[in-house]
Structures are given as C-alpha cells and as structure tokens.
Amino acid sequence: DQQVKQNSPSLSVQEGRISILNCDYTNSMFDYFLWYKKYPAEGPTFLISISSIKDKNEDGRFTVFLNKSAKHLSLHIVPSQPGDSAVYFCAASAYNQGGKLIFGQGTELSVKP
Amino acid sequence: ETGVTQSPTHLIKTRGQQVTLRCSSQSGHNTVSWYQQALGQGPQFIFQYYREEENGRGNFPPRFSGLQFPNYSSELNVNALELDDSALYLCASTPGGLAGAQETQYFGPGTRLLVL
Hints:
The complex is a heterodimer of chains A (113) and B (116).
Chain A: E1 4-5, E2 10-14, E3 19-25, E4 30-38, E5 45-51, E6 56-59, E7 62-67, E8 72-77, E9 86-94, E10 102-103, E11 107-112
Parallel strand pairs in A: 2-11
Antiparallel strand pairs in A: 1-3, 3-8, 4-5, 4-9, 6-7, 7-8, 9-10, 9-11
Chain B: E1 5-7, E2 10-13, E3 19-24, E4 31-37, E5 44-50, E6 53-57, E7 64-68, E8 73-78, E9 87-94, E10 106-107, E11 111-115
Parallel strand pairs in B: 2-11
Antiparallel strand pairs in B: 1-3, 3-8, 4-5, 4-9, 5-6, 7-8, 9-10, 9-11
C-alpha cells in the first residue's frame, strides 16, 4: 500500500518558468511533510518542510503548499533554473511512528535552458 | 553538506554473504535511521536507532540488523544476502533529541550494494 504517491515520474520545464511537483498521501495521521532533492550518486538533500498546522511554507524560490482536506501537497519552484534538474521526493511522517519517513516514488525534473 | 558520511561508497558481494555498512553522524545527532532505495523507487525505512537502542523498524526481515555507538557512528548489517538486496543504502541523522514528528532527517551520500 503506497501511502505517499507522486504520480508524475517526470516533468520538463523551461528555464525561468514555474515548476510544480505534486504529491498525494492517504494516511491522515501524517503531520509533517518534507521535500528532498536528489542528484545521481548523492544522498537526498533536504529542501523544505511543512507542518500540518500550516498550509504554506516559503523558502526563497521554493514554496510548499499543503491541502489537508485533499491530502495533497505541492512544491513550487519559481523561477526554475537548470541546476534544479534532479529527482524530487516528497516524504511524510506521523507523530506516532517516531521518525519514520514514508517516501513517494520521486519525480524527475528537467529544466531546459 | 549534511555532515553525514557513509562507507564504503560501493560494494559488490555474492549471494549468501554478509555485509556491514557504516555511517557517521555529526556530534549531537542522537538519532540515526537507515533506508534502502531500490532503483526507480523512493527510500524505504529499515530501522531507526536512538541513543544506541532500536526505536522503530520497517518491513525488513531480521537478517537486517543494526548498531549505534556512543561516538555517533552506526552500522547496518545484512546477513545471507539475496539478489534483491542490491540497492542504495542511506543513513540519515536527526539533530537534537528523539526523532519524532516534525524533525528533519539529513542524509548521507549512500552506499551502493550490488549482490551477484
């Protein structure tokens, strides 16, 4: 049972435009959500997180939106840059499961010059 | 730079062998988690250690075991290797106290294991 899903395996965007990466979840106990970026041959790098008590969190070019009623979160990157090309994972955790992170399958973002 | 290091970077083993993977966290990171990432998948939680005690386990068989040491290093041991154990193994550490909700995990670069 896939509790965190990223339904788009890949996304291609022009440099300077907005990239929107989506993530859906099924477990209503999740209360903390994170986005990680991963380059080949490296470990995931933390990007941004959001608590379930918020619906938006911003950090520079990155904004995460959380819609709890729809069990959906999205990562917006504005403006997109070629260096943003990587695989993006969303992850979720629940307060009653310790620090266990449940990851989606990832979306490969390609930003073209 | 997360301050989390892993060794070795790559490893080749044969089916039935045993392997030990190592992770070193930053000083003060009391919690370490291990994940397995198969090709084309997201990382899957193996287990977590807090102050040298196992603090949670995913759906992995007992032949996956771990240790955490007082010097913020840890090990993942896998016995009786199977072909499906071929994957990237990631450790992640959490600064501060027990990793409960709303704490960010910082990952190392991983060890890529190939089982032939």
